[in-house]
Amino acid sequence: MDWEYAPAPESAAIGAIKDRYLPYIDGTFVEGGGDDLITYSPGTAEQLSTVSTVNGADVDRAVAAARRAYEKVWAPMSGAERGKYLFRIARGIAERARELAVVETLDNGKPIKETRDFDVPTAAQHFFYHAGWADKLQHLGLGADPRPLGVAGQVIPWNFPLLMAAWKIAPALAAGNTVVIKPAETTPLSILVLAEVIADADLPPGVVNIVPGAGDVGSTLVNHPGLDKVAFTGSTPVGRSIQQSLAGTGRKLTLELGGKGANIVFADAALDQAVEGIVNGIFFNAGQVCCAGSRLLVQESIAEELLAKLRARVETLRVGDPMDKNTDVGAINSARQLERITTLTQAGRDEGAEVWSASCPLPDRGWFFPPTLITAASSSMRVSREEIFGPVLTVLTFRTPDEALAKANNTPYGLSAGVWTEKGSRAMGMAAGLRAGVVWDNTFNRFDPAASFGGYGESGFGREGGPSGMAAYLDTDDEPVLPSSRSGRKGRR
Amino acid sequence: MTSTVPLPAHLEDAVRSETSLRRFLEGLPGVDPVGVEQRAAALATRSIKKTAKLAAIDLAISMVDLTTLEGADTGGKVRNLCRKAMLPDPEFPEVPRTAAVCVYPDLAATAVEMVRGSGVKVAAVATAFPSGRSSVEVKLADTRMAVQAGADEIDMVIDRGAYLAGRYGVVFDQIQQVKATCGDARLKVILETGELATYDNVRRASWLALLAGGDFIKTSTGKVAPAATLPVTHVMLQAVRDWRDQTGQQRAVKPAGGIKTTKDAIRYLVAVHEVAGPEWLDPYWFRFGASSVLNDLLMQRRTQLSGHYSGPDYVTMD
Question: What integer best gives the mean pLDDT of chain A?
Fold first, then answer.
């Protein structure tokens, strides 16, 4: 029987999108001195709202407010009290979960299913988790009395706007720091709704300051002499330039950058679940995920069978209106990103790879790209090396575990990897040899605030989440030791 | 329809001996429990509304094997069940009839007489249902009795004791013998997944039943908890899909037990649609072994049409 799912759109009214949003500095929403920016809804390519942006003077005021709050209120406050505020913010996110999900989907373009079931609940979890650390800093294993760093400047990307805000703000505050944070210019709305949650939690003025703007604001912020710590999540080129400009300043830095994650499927894997894991690894958030499993490495003996199953599965993905509750793959965040994905995919075609896309119809408005597999690819092609940051999977084959390891590690990046095998010893052996901050065993793209996340090489350094994520915001006698020099590892590149 | 077409060589090899059967079944890809449960939970969030919901409700009604399998069953109860199957909602005669009624073999003749000419099939459980603990002779006699009473479909149980002991050949032979005894009746092979315990076992038992010629693979008797679950049904839907990909033959699936609400039924239909494929959205290829779900489907159907909820007193009790 031909059974069409009727449209099931979530109501946009729940997002209560305002005409204009303001920066949040020193506990109040204020007009910024910069030009307004217009934010678009990627699902329709229509204007969604306008946001007042900040200028250099505003950044100065925000940093000064953060410094005052740090010295007068936040650092002297007991950990238990700080924890109460964080719990309150966590509950505030949970209470406004549906609204936040709609705002995020409208502004970012990812499906409502993802914002509702992943982004928003996980953001709340991060506040809950870190609230628990606030009064237990001496139990982190970082010495008897770890101290906050001071004022943190944070810059976050557009792929998980609210969740990245939570990843950055929650540990910083739990450790006793204050923050000035800049959202991405294409996705400033959800963090400004979070600002309302923060204001409603009566967080002392200046503890969290939100400064919307484009890259120039980010540059002004991370180079500001009033900061003690800089945390950046975004592209590798920007991360590199931040590291250059901060060299010698003594300011602490963590970078979470790009990736080209390998998803390695052995012949003895649970095939149907491996297919699900591959789909989840590359089509979750339309592949706009730094830890996406964008390189499939499949053992040659099952390549044909696995790819047949994968293509059949990809054909069932529902691509379209991000607000529809049944949409699996939503919109690409911006016209610029869509162009990059299109260009790189074309480069794959030009270099002789086979490009296959799902036959699903795409909406006639908005920014969309069909789920795509690139087979007959070689390791030297651009599509195998460069981060595409879109719903495009490059497929390579291997014959032996050593070959899989060599191919997986043959990238300047090192953020994530997946291993699919029913043989536990092989999974452990691969995990020890993979140069990646996160290795998923028989799953992919699973996140937990208690598990640390971060990368190797050009994927950055420093960890977020778990005790090592807390360490990134604390002044300790010893730097935390990152896992390295175990057998099979070649050390940092 | 299953035995006439030759199997591909690798499957013919699989059933050549007990050893090759074991090697084949234990060589099937494993099922990762975390992964299959995650996928089942994710698909269960599909939002089925308006016309899609109404279509799903009618489809689900047409797929029900309306069941009574109680020691206390009587001819009167079975006749009432048959009336309900033929005309589920007397106020709305356009409501489709259910696919079948499912009864114990001694009541099959009563049911056959009631539903004659209506298109509703009669399914009879057999083979020492629900435990299957008897001799092959008794199981075959049980089957013969149901077939002679005119049953269109036979719901057999596998020997779980033999299966769990790794005696796959015993299970295989019994299914084949029952199938041979069925004549034209379609054979549903109940795996009793609640006793098989692991998804790996569900996959292997599914393939075992398909190799032995079962027309349906069915989850449960309804007498063991847990009965049907979504992830178990996912594994079985994947099995019939793989079977078709490898043999060109389509086979049917029947989850039974534990499906009580319209919401449950629609979640199963979504799984059928997206895991096996739209070709299985047909009462010939998918059934619900259930009883109480029918009334909930009827109530939800009225709600879809009228816009407000009626109550349980507006649908008949049996």
Answer: 95
